[in-house]
Each structure stands twice: as structure tokens, then as C-alpha cells.
Amino acid sequence: xxxxxxxxxxxxxxxxxxxxxxxxxxxxxxxxxxxxxxxxxxxxxxxxxxxxxxxxxxxxxxxxxxxxxxxxxxxxxxxxxxxxxxxxxxxxxxxxxxxxxxxxxxxxxxxxxxxxxxxxxxxxxxxxxxxxxxxxxxxxxxxxxxxxxxxxxxxxxxxxxxxxxxxxxxxxxxxxxxxxxxxxxxxxxxxxxxxxxxxxxxxxxxxxxxxxxxxxxxxxxxxxxxxxxxxxxxxxxxxxxxxx
Length: 244
Description:
Radius of gyration: 23 Å
Number of strands: 19
Number of helices: 1
Strand order of the largest sheet: 2-17-15-5-6
Order of helices and strands: EEEEEEEEEEHEEEEEEEEE
Distance between the termini: 53 Å
């Protein structure tokens, strides 16, 4: 009986749920990370009894510090943050918010942040995730822009009040953080690529070698750290292709 060996090969993208296409990964560049610039939970997970090393997550957008020559988290542009404050102590009535020419349905004076967010998401120019609303019932409400408005300097929302009770009640809008402003000037504000694979490192380590993905296709929504793909050539809100 002639018995021939059987060989099978399987390739797994372990720890890379954001990777859509492995096209061109042979173009990866070896870089050195400044581990002191990365934050626990956001960028890396703590060691455990079963995993003695800390683990830096793959898919982190990276920039290069022009002073040290080391790679750090990409310092993306800021997201717009606006606030809506109900003044005058109303006891009834409603108000509306208008964003980029679209106006919400009437919102109760004591509405929850979730209700305000839903009212905004019902606008034709706002998708779920584009504006996150936080705050107490009755405000002040904090509107943080993301999604298609990630990193953009968006137009200020306006409010129209039909409130009752209190003393000259109204709604005041303010921009607390303007979007589109670079958060760094040390070189890390320029995107260089993604950390291609997970990196394990010991407590106390300050540097680590790592592969920088400079050619491939990714799913922005599954990255461990959000960034604005509109900053890149051929970018979009769902995927992008970056080539050397």
C-alpha cells in the first residue's frame, strides 16, 4: 500500500479583525515604537497569569515623532464638541435643534440625552454614531461629533425654544472644542501606517520593534483606535487603501 503524506496549510489573522485584505503585506516596514506613549486599555492590555507580557493591540494608527525618530500613536485632528444649555429654569415646553439645514422634531425641556441623540439621528444628514449626546435630563447636553464628521470643523448647531415657565427660558449653543485642529506638532499628527500585529512587551520596557503596515485594506470601524480616514488619499469612512 502506497501511503503519501498529507499536508495542509492554514493562515490566520489572529488579533487583526480590522484587516480586510492582506494584499501587499510584504511591504511592511520595521519600525521602533516608543512604548511610553501608549495608554493602557486604549492601546494595550495588562499582563495576566496566563499572558505574562503586556500586549499592544494591532491596528493602532501610528505617527513618527520627528525629535526621537520613534513611532507613537497617530495624533489625529480633534473632533467637534458643542453644548446645548437650557437657561431660565423652564417648567414646560419644547425646543428644536437645527444642524446643517435640518431641524429636529420638538424635544421636551427635560428630555434625556438619549432622547436628544435620537432626535438628531432622525435627521437625514445624521447617521447613528455621527453625534453622541451626553448629559443629564434637562441638560446641559454635550454633542460630540464622529462618524462622517470625525475630525471635521462642522457648522454650529442652532436652537429654537418654545419653553414655558421660569424666567425668560431659552437654549444657548456653544462650541467647546472646534473640530479639525491638529492635536500635535511633533510629527505624530502625520499618519504613517498601522501597527500590523500584536506586540508583547515586558513591564518596564520603553521600546519595541514592530511591523508597520503601509499597504493593505482595512475596516475603519474595527480599528482599536478611531481616526479620520479622510486625512488619507483614497480614504473613506468604511475602508481605505494606502500604498507606498
